[in-house]
Amino acid sequence: MIRDGDPLPPTVYPLAKGRVWAMLAGSLVFVALGIVFLVAHTTVKMTAAGVLAVPFFGFCSLIIVHRLFSDRPELVLDDAGVDHVRLGRLGWDEIAAVRIREQRVRNTSQWFIELVLHDPDAYLARAPKLVRSTASMNARLGFGPANMATNTLPVSPEAVLDAMRRHCPGLAVQH
């Protein structure tokens, strides 16, 4: 959006490194537990849990370490659209609406900002591989393909929506 002849400067959100360090610690704890289960192998269930936990949480740990040492911002909002570290670049003209969504698992909640797209299939055709591979699971959970986890952002989901509306005043927000 142009204000007084000047475009609005981009809104840049870096990775919330403190939260991500905590995520790394949690992943490493699960790797260690998996190793303990493999070494103890007192039951088939423990061995199976170890076999699943070590590679899964080990892979998660590697991804987290990569993100911690990358200088790329987590999210950049500008007058042309959204650039998210995992989702890639989306123009405002591709986004029909945004909404804050909650995914509850047992006693915890994970908050997301969902970008409701005009043409999800066109986005998926060019989306990063991880987004394409999780699209069907997201659909089963009632989500579209473009979801931003808010736990890696240094501000609240509401603050991100406010910034989105500053860059795209006509943006529809669903509740």
Question: How would you characterize this protein structure?
Answer:
The protein has helices at 17-40, 44-68, 120-126, 129-140, 157-167, and strands at 2-3, 6-7, 11-13, 75-77, 81-84, 88-91, 95-105, 108-117, 147-149, 172-174. It is an alpha+beta fold and 175 residues long. Strands 3-4-5-6 form a 4-stranded antiparallel beta sheet, covered by helices on one side. It has a 4-stranded mixed beta sheet with strand order 9-8-7-10, covered by helices on one side. Helix 1 (17-40) runs antiparallel to helix 2. The radius of gyration is 19 Å and the shape is elongated. It starts with a strand and ends with a strand.
Descriptors:
175 residues, alpha+beta, 4-stranded mixed β-sheet, 5 helices, 10 strands, elongated
